[in-house]
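[recover] target loaded
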C-alpha cells in the first residue's frame, strides 16, 4: 500500500490481512460462509473457477494480477470490522490528529502561489472528514486518503478566511512520514 494507508492501518488495526493469496482466499470464503457464487461475484470470476480453487484443482496464486489485486481489496474491505468500527467511533468522539512531514504545493484561481516545499505539520482533521478517511482505509484507496488529509490540512493550516489563501487547493506529495492519532 502507500504511506497514508499504512499509517491508518498501523494506528487503527490490530493485525494485517493474510499475506498469501491462499490465506486471503480462505478468509474471503469464511466471510462468505463458503458460498462460491458470492465469492465469484466479488472476485469477478466464474463460479466454477472458485469451485476449482476450493477443491484444489487450481492454485489461487497463479491467477491473473487483476484477480489477485481484487482478492486483496475484498479481504481488506472485510478485515476486522469491529476493530475499525470501534476506531471510527472513538475518532468521531475524540477527533483525529495528523502529524506529517511532506511536500506541499499550492494552486489557486490565479495559478501557482508557492513552490512546493517540505513542511512539518501537526494539525487536527475536521470532524466532517473523519468518516470519509476511514472509508478510504476500508477501500484501500491511497489517493483518496491523501486527498482527504490534504483537504483537512488545507482547512486547518493553509487557508485563511477573508484572504486570497481562502481558495488554495493543497496537494500532499513526497510524504517523508505520516502518523495519525486521537486528539
Amino acid at each position: 500500500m502507500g504511506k497514508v494507508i499504512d499509517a491508518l492501518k498501523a494506528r487503527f488495526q490490530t493485525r494485517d490481512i493474510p499475506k498469501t493469496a491462499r490465506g486471503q482466499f480462505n478468509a474471503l470464503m469464511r466471510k462468505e460462509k463458503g458460498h462460491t457464487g458470492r465469492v465469484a461475484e466479488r472476485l469477478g470470476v466464474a463460479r466454477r473457477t472458485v469451485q476449482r480453487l476450493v477443491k484444489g484443482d487450481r492454485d489461487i496464486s497463479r491467477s491473473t494480477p487483476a484477480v489477485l489485486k481484487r482478492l486483496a481489496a475484498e479481504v481488506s474491505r472485510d478485515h476486522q470490522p469491529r476493530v475499525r468500527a470501534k476506531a471510527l467511533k472513538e475518532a468521531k468522539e475524540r477527533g483525529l490528529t495528523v502529524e506529517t512531514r511532506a511536500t506541499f504545493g499550492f494552486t489557486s484561481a490565479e495559478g501557482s502561489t508557492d513552490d512546493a516545499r517540505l513542511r512539518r505539520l501537526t494539525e487536527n482533521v475536521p470532524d466532517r472528514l473523519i468518516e470519509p478517511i476511514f472509508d478510504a482505509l476500508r477501500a484501500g484507496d491511497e489517493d483518496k486518503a491523501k486527498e482527504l488529509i490534504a483537504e483537512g490540512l488545507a482547512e486547518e493550516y493553509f487557508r485563511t478566511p477573508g484572504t486570497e489563501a481562502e481558495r488554495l487547493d493543497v496537494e500532499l506529495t513526497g510524504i517523508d512520514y505520516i502518523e495519525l492519532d486521537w486528539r
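[recover] notes: The chain has two domains: 18-78, 86-182.
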